[in-house]
Amino acid sequence: MAWLQLKIESAKADAERIEEALELVGAGAIMMEDAADQPLFEPPLGTTPLWDATRLVALFTIDSDMEAILEFLNEHLEGGLPSHRVEILEDQVWERAWMDHYHPMCFGDRLWVVPSWTPPPQPNAINLLLDPGLAFGTGTHATTALCMEWLDGLDLQDQIVVDYGCGSGILAIAALLLGAKHAYCVDLDPQALLASKDNAARNHVADKMTVCFPDAMPDIKAGVVVANILAGPLAELAPVLARLCEANGDLAISGIIDSQVEDLKTAYAPWVIFDKLNTKDENWCRLSGKRLNTNA
Asked: Which residue has the higher pLDDT, 50 or 189?
């Protein structure tokens, strides 16, 4: 199978912002490499070393709309999209090379996300084994982390959960491991639904998960609804997500930045009262709150 490979030249200061944007547009794998043959010496503890001239290499499925991807990146990156090139990559599986850089992560008080090829650091914790494959959602992005921490803080025992825009299924699987009765994974991307199924099976919760495209979503009421996508779709989906959430149920949206918060509050105002805003990594945000007891 062939893939589309996007290479972007970046300064060190911009590399992480570009990586976050690539995750948001569905890159299945992202790697950073030295663009100028610069040696890196042992970094201080807790820091991530980057080269002054960093090249980001992102992998997309061959049917991806690269024109739309480039347009989004150009509009959402400060200063526009840097020098870049797109290539077709034949029959290679280098997306697995990033495994060396993906390590176990803790969210909240109970929940760990552990790469499927790594032993859990705390075997008695709630360990979510994850192999994201070509679907967005590993826990490394700030918005995924915000949603994971939110789920960890809820009482999910016997709840029905909807993960709208499920990506790898990480949020739905986390909810099930935390006690939810059933989870619905909804996504437009067939690769995301496949990854969600595979990861659910890996975590022995496949029998409690339903995966479907949006137009096949059953008319149910869930106690918990979460959507980690983009601001535009979140605004359009406000009545859909509100309809899926039962009265007094919990609803969270993320994948947004601080400048988009007020517009989204307005979009959801007929249905949801949001709690205080939660942020991570400066400007990534999560809005969470309660579904109003209304027929609106």
From this structure: 189
